[in-house]
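Journal club side-thread
Mid-discussion, someone asked how the predicted structure for our own chain would compare to the paper's figures. Pasting it here so we can look after the session.
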Amino acid sequence: MGIVLKNILLTGGRATIALELARQFHAQGHNVYVTDCNRLHICRYSNTVRKSFKTPSPRYEPDEFIRSLVHIIEDHQIDLLIPTCEEIMFISGYLDRFPKFCKVFCSSFEMIHELHSKWLFCQKTNELGFNPPKTQLIETSEDVSKIHIDTPYVLKATYSRACQNLVFVGPDATPPPIPVAHSNPWVAQEWIEGKKYCTYSIALEGKLTAHTTYPVAFTVDGSSCITFEAVAHEPIFNWVKDFLAKIKFTGQVAFDFIEKKNGKLFAIECNPRATHGLHLFSIMDNLPAAFFNISDHVIQPEVGTQKQLAIGMMAFGWREVNRRQELSSFRKKFFKTKDVVFCRKDPKPFFAMSFLFPMYWVKSKQYGITIAEAFTREMEWNGDHPKDL
């Protein structure tokens, strides 16, 4: 079953996940356009992108950002707008502003917010009977002394990403002061020992159309994964399928799970946007079909498929290696796993990384933040509510 070729607009062009989607849609014959609030970004150099646009920052100029997207959609007759990163928080808040002929691939702001908030997500999973970890809201600095969760536990900002500002409180330890803000409260959440997994899924009105699960292995200092391997995990698949059906979700979404030794699953948090798990889908999987709901099955990558962010492995992966045996494992993974950026048919993005990565390093030094924070700085949503245009 085929579809009419479409004009696709992707936001967040700095992300490798946007590059992946551009290549996937281009391979199926669609016309791909990309935006970012930086003029230089990885998708700008891809031969799968018809045109790249610079927009204002969604975080610092949300009104202008939305206006810019609307103009691009009207000028280029965009059929489908797909947010990839946290700019989705701003886009979902202005769904009524977009032309009716363009489908915006996301749910309402209220639903996206409920999933993005670490506190509201736990409340929602509990409401639907999915048994979340013990979690307590911290709205003021004084609330830290009123935590009623047995140690160990973690403290983390309600709106954060990639384990930013995560504080581990061990047995009998005194929790340190934390920068609680009115717009961004924190949560205390019980620490659960077990196997960590991440997922990436696509759904339309609650119907799961694509899914993958991958265990956490090499990471950026214990946060974002930089290696990925598709595994079969039926309990997680069923959890995701049931949860998305119950909330009638539309969009891309990812969950972080911990599985205890007894097999009990806990969904720790949710990212209602694209994540690196989509790199596990090959061109042959026809991932774009999941966005159009034209596949007769849930699209999944072949079990055992492996990918890596090679630049991440070079910069961060080796830090997790502290024994000779682990060094051997690192070398094997690094030299035998396909990079998510390099592509013989589309080589320029790979070589562009040589100056794009240092650009974020410089920005991190300029603002006194981590490289990961510098990467997301202009697109983050930390409790600010969309304003009227």
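Post-session note: The domain at 1-106+347-384 is CATH 3.40.50.20 (Rossmann fold).
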